[in-house]
Automatic annotation (TrEMBL), chain A:
Residue spans crossing the bilayer: 98-121, 133-160, 172-191, 270-298
InterPro entries: MetI-like, MetI-like_sf
PROSITE patterns: ABC_TM1
Organism: Thalassospira profundimaris
Localization, UniProt: Cell membrane
Family: Belongs to the binding-protein-dependent transport system permease family.
Domain ABC transmembrane type-1 residues, every copy: 94-291
One annotated GO biological process: transmembrane transport
Name assigned to this protein: ABC transporter permease
Key words of the record: Cell membrane, Membrane, Transmembrane, Transmembrane helix, Transport
Any single Gene Ontology cellular-component annotation: plasma membrane
TrEMBL record, chain B:
Keyword Nucleotide-binding among UniProt keywords: yes
Name under which the protein is recorded: ABC transporter ATP-binding protein
The organism's taxonomic lineage, starting at the top: Bacteria, Pseudomonadati, Pseudomonadota, Alphaproteobacteria, Rhodospirillales
UniProt entry keywords in alphabetical sequence: ATP-binding, Nucleotide-binding, Transport
Primary localisation category: membrane
Molecular function as annotated in GO: ATP binding; ATP hydrolysis activity
Family affiliation: Belongs to the ABC transporter superfamily.
Ranges annotated as spanning the membrane: none
Amino acid sequence: MSRLFRQRAVTSLFSLLGLIVLVFFLSRLTGDPTSLFLPIDATDAMRENFRELHGLNDPLLLQFWHYIVDLTHLDFGESIRKARPAIDVVIEAFGWTFQLAIMTMALVAFCAIVLGSIAAFRVGGKFDRLVSLVSLIGASAPDFWIAIVAIVIFSINIGWLPTSGTGSIAHWILPIAVLFIRPFGLILQVVRGSMISALGSAYVKTAKAKGVKNTPIIFVHTLRNAMLPVITVMGDQAAALLNGAVVVETIFGFPGVGKLMIDSILQRDFNVILAAIMVTALAIFIMNLLIDVAYLFLDPRIRY
Amino acid sequence: MTDHLLEVRNLSVRFHTAAGIVDAVRNVSWHLDRGETLAILGESGSGKSVSASAIMNLIDIPPGEITSGEILFDGNDLLQQTAEERRQVNGKRIAMIFQDPLSHLNPVYPVGWQIAETMRVHGKDPAEANARALDLVRRVGLPNPQQALEKYPHQFSGGQRQRIMIAMALALKPDILIADEPTTALDVTVQAEVLALLEELQAETGMGLLLITHDLGVVAETADRVVVMNRGEIVETGPASEVYHNPRDPYTRRLIAAAPGKGEMRDGNSQGKPLLEMKGVEKAFGSFQALKGVDLTVFPGETVAIVGESGSGKSTLVKTLVRLIEPTAGQATWNGRDLFAMSLKEMRPVRRDIQMVFQDPTQSLNPRMTIFEVISEAWRIHKDVVPRAQWRTRVAELLTQVGLLPDHARRYPHQFSGGQRQRIAIARALALEPKLIVCDEAVSALDVSIQAQVIALLDRLRRDLGIAFIFIAHDLPVVRDFADHVLVMQSGAVVEKGTTREIFENPKSLYTKTLLASGLDPDPEVQAKRRAERKELVDA
């Protein structure tokens, strides 16, 4: 187990390093933040001063060297836009995204697993066909469109829910609902497929011959066996949510990592972009580790 | 009403499949009494398992449909009862065990939990169920019962898993135990132990035992009465010994005649220079010694059988022969050349000379290739065997040679039966005009009558084409009719070798003797004698 952790940590560290190099130089190709932050009538001296202050005058490689050296002291640099340490800005936004992702995924997992399992038990039945149709629509619906339509209906026409921002429980409902649809559709399909094949297993026949009731056959005997592929897909979907749902967060004015990224890219707030990438990478690393632990827990035949 | 413990009357079951309606069983009637063992004997597709599935409510409806009949148990027709009523019968009054216990046990729960579950679902208190599970595990003879309860199915051997299945089935002392091919996947000595255990438990509880099997030996060993099925119908029924000695139905007669182990034995006829000589071959996987210095000699045109139970190293040995596995020590000469010193390039013509036929023809034939492609594929690599213009005629010849039709070349593997697929695999092996064919359990998965045909085919090829065979098997009677020499292996070492007659008539090592005594003879009287011999050996 600890060997697995070390292996994963080493490989992840290398890919993270590659990512940092790539993002560091690519983001600087977008241009100089000075022209965005200073007023149009700023003097050359003011511009020079700004560049000097943020270390933008050094040669690119030297800037990178400084960045890496600071990073080893866990100094992620300042956010130009917020005039605060970049890491603080990112962690604040990540907190919001994290809550959103956890709540959405919990809901997705529960609904997809229960409905998918029941659908699989009677393949081709009315319930199965209804659930399959709904999940197919869900898996293929564009979320930006659903978000806008949902705002029009629930916020503007009926006026039940706020259009954007945070502050009350009501503010969470629409973002969660919109983010829910696609992973729900996708994971339900995986649960259903995996359950159909697991229900055809020989050990299900044994359970029936023992006189086990249908509900435990589905949820005790079969589900645990069918969960391995499901967990893999759930991990992918959760990773996508942790990365920040850029479109949905932007539409709902939700102060998460996705929105922060977009804003920082548009304003060339380089340090924030890099810090955001590192924080989400760490979150995804931890989540993958949790998935491996879940595998171990679910299937006694797996040993790392 | 009925006086029998269980009675099936005029049962007909059909399946609605994509290919049309299949009548799996038609008008099947039989009965089982307390303390009795009834065997249903039949080959694959005979419908022998269908009535058992109907009893256990395991037939999926649809696509299945029970079109007529009654299953009388305890004065009730099971087929008229509700799903809930039948669930209460399952596991408590009638229990079932299956072939291949590994896939029939849930891989993710400890076996103790699974055994106790039978009792919990029928209302036993969990603590009491756990205590009884321990007793059961002890009774069926698992080592370290207390620890065994916490282990998972994959941590046991095949025979132990079947013992676990038996413990699970007998937890609530059912009136009837249905055993569907319970020993088919097991080694002969393990098979004998499991059957002995079933018999003991039957004597203890007085349950009725319904045994479904394709194996005449299992019938001879266990059954009081036998029902013979063919193509969904009962062709004959009666006391086991009477049916064996005086079969009335032509199908039963054919089945009994096909049972291997009755032909003339060979004394070996090694001539000329040896084709293959292996000396002191060793193979270690880490600290595990899979082969411990094995010698093997094969002469042109002769058959050497390698017999041993799972884990004896027989497959590892032949894999070193074609260098699919590199040996850790030892020598081998092929046609006078050092086999283990050859480079990969030098190996190529040797691989052409040594062909393999595997156990499962379904898995060893690519389902997306036509038979023509399957057979001609090797000619793309070994270009000098057959010129491309003659591929079609040569494939047709090969198919005729193995008893198929030239027309079959256009079809795909799934359009053939198991026996036909094995013929195709043999035709593919013949395509390269080999000097030696290695058959790795090549007939083990086939029905008895098909097995006899395939062996007759191999024997004819040996005589006509002078091909030598290495024939790996766990089944002794098959080897008896076909081999010139026999090599008996146990845990990576050769325990005995000799001509077929020497091995069968005068076995020297205790292991060979046990192996021979564990094999089941289709004749109930012979089998009774053999059982006594085995008991002596085990006690010794």
